[in-house]
């Protein structure tokens, strides 16, 4: 029997039966997290545990010709130093795992760590020290000396851009999309802008850095890993290590933030499992922040041309967005930078193209609102610039171009209340008080500006297997291998299950974060809540049918479900959606396809209106954000407290992107210079104003309970709203993020 993560029961005042959905109940994982009771991946105890530290390559491209580990081995407490010369051989990465045009692969890169002498980026792990203590491992790792045969490397994004080629793929988020003749329409437009925007690379900087504990017992592997994809990760590890998937268990009960950075299996996880196999003892590999920056991908930098043409009364006739982003030579992901441009405004002629350039850098990966975070900065800044060209209110310009159907696909919107979001937001924020002239509002030495932008993130639903058990003591247990990364994932599913079963919220327990449970979806692309809810609702409906049938038999119709079970001397009843059997997994794939095709009938998205007020010091250029409002169109809200928290957290991330965050790569050698919080500037409390978030709470009729994923939409439009407000305050248009002091002066 295995044990799974259990949510403690909420100590909050009792929630009325049938009324859990829509209530602001506390996060179930909250208490454990703030009191230190939660155990994160690196915090599990095993007798005999060893500690590992990786050694990173210091060239961007080449071959290891010699590697000297003698000094490291001699450090007291060192158990082993593994390199490509002595590490266990494991199955190479399947090349097919890298699907750049569709999304990041489970294998973050194609590199066979410690099984190859080839180096593909500065920072690639090339050895690992295993020791009795982390102190010994950290002392020994820098003593490994490596000799390389270096090759010419492509590490300067600015210099490589001429090598970019259009990304392939014909899915809505990839490649090139054309409608009419946008260049011709732009050339003849009454009013137009043709602009260039850039964004830097970004890093996730989750509270909990990447960490793994790997434990082999015979040919069974248990991995505590901070991951947002236990199911994909356990299958991947099973394949790499050549054991059946049932013999690999990936556990991630608590995840201290992920934001897309913990979807792929990055080198630390594979190397920990490899090291544990080599030394025959459990291995803990907890990456330092510097190591995370060198060995786990972040967001690509981008360069974008955007051109908008319009009639004098503000109707878009041309929309062109041409973006360049980079991937690694051994993996990476196409950032869907055109995503907002393809779905937001009804331009007659459109051309959106995403170009990729391959570089000898750590492959990029998902980072919150991949594509949309960049694309919404570009599009929403340009819309503001066009509004000024037209001498029109920037919100009016947006509303004048509200499309009746999706501008690219022509599909109907399942839900679209952007107009209502802007109307309600403008009212609440006091947009009418804004004098539209740049540099017209002042408060002493502070120039005051107000900016707005549209938020946009598409809806994705994957597939989840769920098992629900109702016991005759009145409690229920929901099991699904989904992920709790701090967004109240388990809390909202307990709310949903309680109402679906007609029992008290406090009676529902949820188990998650474990590949031994019925497989859940990866937590990413804001899919998880709606995906799991789809299956929880189906399983609860099946269970309710079973209870009703039993009630009829026992003559207990109308009584609470547990009374029926007791009357029938039945300890519990269960219902499942999907299963882990081969047939069940085929069935799950079928369900995924059916849902996917159903969802494809609509253009579905989360949207919102971002409003901000900034103050820029007229003498020093210091930028302060003084007010924020996000008014969202994100479907039916299951838990107002945790939804507000998600939206607010995303806005904070957007503020970081706008004001200070950037991955700095040395253009001479490809080394990340901003590895660690001393050189990568995250916003701190003093940077964040009170953030007002609100929503329309209109259910999306095409989704279970009207749910629209809202994890990522909050980040979109944020950087543009700030840049637009800075322009309004100062008359200075900043087209290159971050908006640092040197640019506002
Ligand atoms: Mo999502 S890219 O996992 O925040």
From TrEMBL:
Q: Where is the Aldehyde oxidase/xanthine dehydrogenase a/b hammerhead domain?
A: 35-152
Give UniProt keywords alphabetically: Molybdenum, Oxidoreductase
Tell whether Iron-sulfur is among the UniProt keywords.
no
Is Oxidoreductase tagged as a keyword? Answer: yes
- Top-rank taxon, per record: Bacteria
Q: What are the start and end residues of every segment in region (Disordered)?
A: 1-29
**InterPro entries documented for this protein:** Ald_Oxase/Xan_DH_a/b, Ald_Oxase/Xan_DH_a/b_sf, Ald_Oxase/xanthine_DH-like, AldOxase/xan_DH_MoCoBD1, AldOxase/xan_DH_MoCoBD2, AldOxase/xan_DH_Mopterin-bd_sf
Q: Which PANTHER family match?
A: ALDEHYDE OXIDASE 1-RELATED (PTHR11908:SF132), XANTHINE DEHYDROGENASE (PTHR11908)
The protein's name in its UniProt record: Carbon-monoxide dehydrogenase large subunit
